[in-house]
User: Fold these one by one.
Assistant:
Number 1:
Amino acid sequence: MLRMVDNAIEWAATQFWRHRVHRQFRRHLGKDGDFENPRSHQEKVQFRKIYGNHPFYALVADKYRVREYVEKRIGAKYLIPLLAAHDRLQPRDFNPLPDRFIIKANHGCKWHQVVRDKSALDVKATCRRFNKYMRARYGWTSGERHYRFIEPKIVIEELLESHTGGCPWDYSFFAYNGPAGFDYNYAIVTPDGRSSCYTRQGELLVSKIPLEELAPHLNPANFNEMVEVTRALSADFDFVRVDLYSVGNRVYFGELTLTPHQGYGAIAEPRRQKMRDEMWHLDAWNPLLYRAPKSHGRREPAVIAHPATEP
């Protein structure tokens, strides 16, 4: 009886999120999507958001608990050193911290603060800000349900810095595991979010970064190591984005991203859209990843309608 009740509650929750995701998809991309038999990258992200194994997703999306997941797979040496973790911040928690660090809320996106000079920090305002995050729930508007399974925590880590003294650039690997095995493409991303996108073979697809600015970050000596780290961290997934940093010729883990841009980002460059669509072979019946609906797989293959513009 209890199992029947639980199943009914889960069915109702799935229908609620499905309706919400459909509405948001239409608002952002200007069309309806097929989320039971998805073909495009954007539709597959919505399938994951609706029918995913959200407790497992929460484990790897959690900026605190994912550390244990990463350590088991590739070792602690790839983790950014942890300085502290709190359920709530108080002014005295800053006393033992070094002059420079980064504070993060573990259960959201872009909920962080870089501190380069502790003496100039408004400690009380920072406490108020992050304690407010502890009462907030990320993912409601976007339909990213897995964030609601994360127990909120405030994480404080050492601040990674590039050779120029700023934040390091991000190497984002779009990693896939399908019938042919492991595959990837990647992007090099500046701290302010501009990117250059490449195929696995290193062919440039599109760039928003001037070449003279990009050049020092091309072909780092530890690139092959980053690929092997990506291979290991993506092994449980049909698709995941693995974000890494290269600092002082060392590779550091950034995060695992399951729903890039919430699945609402249109891609203007047709070749890159096609690559995203075709490289992701949805492993819909894998119970670690999904709770696929019975209607999945009933539709005949169709031509993908690619989004026309990029936000």
Number 2:
Amino acid sequence: MWRSNPTWGSPRIVAELHKLGIEVAKSTVEKYKPHGKRLPSATWQTFLDLHLKELIAIDFFVVPTATFKVLFVFIVLAHDRRRIVHFNVTEHPTAQWTAQQIVEAFPFDTVPQYLLRDGDGIYGDQVKRRMASLGINEIVTAPASPWQNAYVERVIGSLRRELLDHVVVLNQRHLKRLLFSYLDYYHPWRTHRSLDQDAPDHRPVQIAKPDRLADRRVLASCKRPLSMKVASRGIAGQAARSGISSTAMGSAAVANVQSEPPLPNEEWPPLRGPFSFGNGEGLNLQSREAAQVRVEAGVAGRHN
């Protein structure tokens, strides 16, 4: 009976057993009760997830200016894609001004079903009547509980950390211009963990070509001629495999280079592997003639 009805309490089990002609004490029922977790009630996070597409959050935050004034920024955030659907700035916020902002944020048939806000006194009777006329259901968070309106609080924190902490706001017009420029970056480019590392306006993945990345790494590491670097690495590798010192093998390689005549232009093999472009041609770091001159100059310097 416990397994079939996990929400029943001990008195309910005793009563049901009594109706079946089984007399048992409450302590006996509790003794054989399975020790499992009770089904939890719906949490605040569950409510937010179920009504994500129909939920809008609003809030105010303040920004000081260079002339020691305080500007109030009103922000409206859509929960589904973390889009900032509306914002405005004022120095003297009122209930009438706030109600007008809500009307401007939701034109025509874009009115949400739920609106999440805190218990600030700015949301007076005018704001409540305007929301009721639009068919919006208000959800007021508990006092001193900013975590219940966490999404808009996170956006305000991002605005401060990524924008407002790095500039000195001059006036109301300057602040509006800064916020408009930030939204031009925020919606198409800024990624969110809650959106699976995507931006509010879907941002496609841009895959760089591997051959171009390899070429850039090679170009950045070439502080000496590429042929000399490849040759030195090859000598060191052969010396390690054969057990001969790299100095002795290097001397032998230099003697071979000195004894052999230089190759004509058309007989130089192109570079392959990580030092080649996608079409198979060698990197044009220097001409073939310049590479041969460098090798011969190195040989002459060793003998002198």
Number 3:
Amino acid sequence: MEWIGYVGIAAFALAWVPQCRETMLAGRCEVNLSFLLLAALGSFSLMTYAFLRHDAVFSILNALTTGGALVNVYYKLFPRLRS
């Protein structure tokens, strides 16, 4: 039954891949900053909660989604200058 959780992890975490790729290639992020900050805060909070409950599935999921959100926050705050 745990495998269902890992399928969910993969799908949800992979959802950030196209956005992160687009952001890094463009050198900037067009996604709303409030959304990104709330997504990062929410994922980080859930990761902490899951970690404290010793829930590997949700700890991994929220660590990956926190990372995806933070990549986009970085490029939103520090866009690469075009030359």
Number 4:
Amino acid sequence: MNIRQKNIYGICARSHVPLHVGEGVKKYAMEKIERELEIDQKIDVLYDVPGNGPGALIFLGAVSEKAVAGFSSLGGREKRAEEVAREEIELSRNKKG
């Protein structure tokens, strides 16, 4: 079965970290999707999300002609924002059918 991805929608959220962390996750993810997957994307950032500790997360939803899939990655104190986004893109690329 050939499933062509149409769009990727995402949410980045940050809690107890500087504002640039959420924007960094978004920027890195959007650039990597554009460059490597060549798929249209829209990613929003949620600021000041309540949390038990510092960190960021990203959730991406991939929508194709015949399927919908979701992927997420969570960052923390020792994990750079770019690493959070990179993990997410790798997951979605590996599941691409």
